[in-house]
Amino acid sequence: MSFKLIRNSSPSLTNASHLVSVSSRLLAAQTSSSVTAKLDRRRSLARAQQRHIVTIVPQGHEAYRLTLGRNPERLHPGLHINIPLLHTLQLVDTRETSIPISDLNGFTSDNVPVLVSGSLFFRVQNAYDACFSVNNFNENVKQIGTSAMRSVVGSFYYDAIISDRNGINDKLRNVIGNSIQSWGIECTRFEIQTFKPSNREVERQLELQMEVMKHLPTLPGDR
Q: What separation in angstroms does the CA of 153 have from each of 15, 94, 170, 199, 201?
């Protein structure tokens, strides 16, 4: 008797399981549809903003308006006509901007492995060159800064960097500035924020070396 009851109840359990599975799939589909609808609304809003016939160039910026991809026309801050499909706008921030360069591994001239972080400050002097002489000048300025910082750090002794950080900052500003000036961009300054050995073992060895140097007897010629 119990065997028959189990057999009779089995289809009900199967149907219930099937209903739960179908409900889960329907709920997942509704959630996915809701997310897709939100993304579609955002895309539509972005396209609607791009279709505006009027554009505003903010203060501290310059823009170039291209007609059918050519004949760039300089636009100063203010209200301007920007006809969709006919015009393309290139907007440039002419204010001083900083780019962080974090946790860069390198070696000093005396082969000490170090970890360096700093900030590169620059300003666009010629918006035309920044738009049309280089692609994505912000990213390229960062790449130049990263390469220059590793190279310049490698030309200084560890003790020299510790004692004269302003000297390495000035050299970095000159090296980076010479590399990016053809893009109409000026490197205003470079600030090294952190400079330390790349691991604790190297730091400990340097500390021991400094302790030894302190306790060495002073020679008559060094006085």
A: 72, 29, 12, 17, 20
DSSP alpha helix (H) spans, the chain: 2-50, 127-132, 137-153, 158-163, 165-180, 200-215
Q: Are 171 and 191 in contact (CB under 8 A)?
A: no
Number of domains in the chain: 2
65 within a domain of the structure (yes/no): yes
Q: What is the pLDDT of residues 124-172, one digit of tens each?
A: 999 999 999 999 999 999 999 999 999 999 998 888 888 888 889 999 9
Q: If you write DSSP's letter for every residue of 32-92 in order, what string do you get?
A: HHHHHHHHHHHHHHHHHHHT-SEEEE-TTEEEEEEETTEEEEEE-SEEEE--TTTEEEEEE
Which one of 92, 126, 147 terminates a domain? 92
- DSSP state letter for 217: P
Q: Is the domain of 140 the same as that of 80?
A: no
User: Is the model's pTM score more than 0.85?
Assistant: no
Question: What does the alpha-carbon distance between residue 147 and residue 87 come to, in Å, rounded to a whole number?
Answer: 37
What is the rounded CA–CA span in Å between residue 220 and residue 223? 6
Dihedral, CA of residue 116, residue 117, residue 122 and residue 128, to nearest 10 = 80
Query: Cα–Cα distance between 214 and 210 in angstroms, integer?
Result: 6
Contact status, residue 79 vs residue 61, Cβ threshold 8 Å:
no
58 strand-pairing partners: none
Q: Which two tokens stand for residue 10?
A: 């089995």
Do 137 and 200 belong to one domain? yes
